[in-house]
Amino acid sequence: MTATAPWGLPYWLDFERPQFPTLDRDLSTEVAIIGGGIAGLKLAHFLNGQGIPVDILEGGRVGDGASGRNQGSLNHGPGFGYAECIARHSRGVAKELWQLGLDNHELMRDQLAEYEVDCDYQVEGFWFLTREDMPDHQATLQSYRTDCDLLAEDGFEVEWLDRDSARERGGNSLYTGGFGYLTDAQFHSGKYVAGLARGIARRPGVQLWERTRIVKIEKCGSGAVARAANGHTVRARHIFLAVNALAPQFVRS
């Protein structure tokens, strides 16, 4: 198996992070989760809430991967506009999809409180602005107007910006208008994943192992065995991969 890339330490991760032990023995568990990023930690939170013992196996340190290296923006919707979603599916589907964004905000706030995570979470809004030097900026501006009106009709907290307001918001005289989601937020992704790991690892029935790189997974009876680079093994009834781009290392093509 290919080793995890030797990433350097970005400045936003240069703070005192919690440290967890390295696997130093063979063990058996109900569930092993490979990957200690947001996906792995959230899965551990859910399974532990069902009374299932969990071991989390992180190849480096918590936050070393994409979970601690993203822009930390918590936004509504997918990668296309509200009106387009309505046209593709239906207004009901669009509203449900955008509501998931609000539900995600609430879930995150609840877990920040539950695990006492300080990650600079702030509701600052997220803005879509057009510039007069953009190709077809008038058409884009009209699509933003349509989205804003439809979202407001469906009860979402949005705000339309005229030319003057957009220029003030964007700090550039080229802006011609746009709209914003007032409830969108930002946070420090490194502090978030570190705090989440600290809180979840304190729960009875959860063990988090760092610097425990899994190099091979083999079927064993009704379960499987994960083999670490240091030679130790983890036997589990179920093994989950939460390793993002590293998944092809474990999945046969």
Brief characterization of the structure:
The chain is of the alpha/beta class and 253 residues long.
| Shape annotation | elongated
Strand order of the largest sheet: 9-2-1-12-11-10
Helix-residue proportion: 25-40%
Query: What's the number of structural domains?
Result: 2
Beta-strand content: 15-25%
Ends: how far apart?
14 Å
Please tell me about this protein's structure.
With 253 residues, the chain is an alpha/beta fold. It folds into two domains: 20-67 and 214-249, FAD/NAD(P)-binding domain, CATH 3.50.50; 73-186, no CATH class. 32% of the residues lie in helices and 24% in strands. Strands 9-2-1-12-11-10 form a six-stranded mixed sheet, covered by helices on one side. A hairpin with a 4-residue loop joins strand 11 (223-228) and strand 12. Helix 1 packs parallel to helix 6 and helix 2 (82-88) crosses helix 3. Residues 1-5 have low confidence and may be disordered.
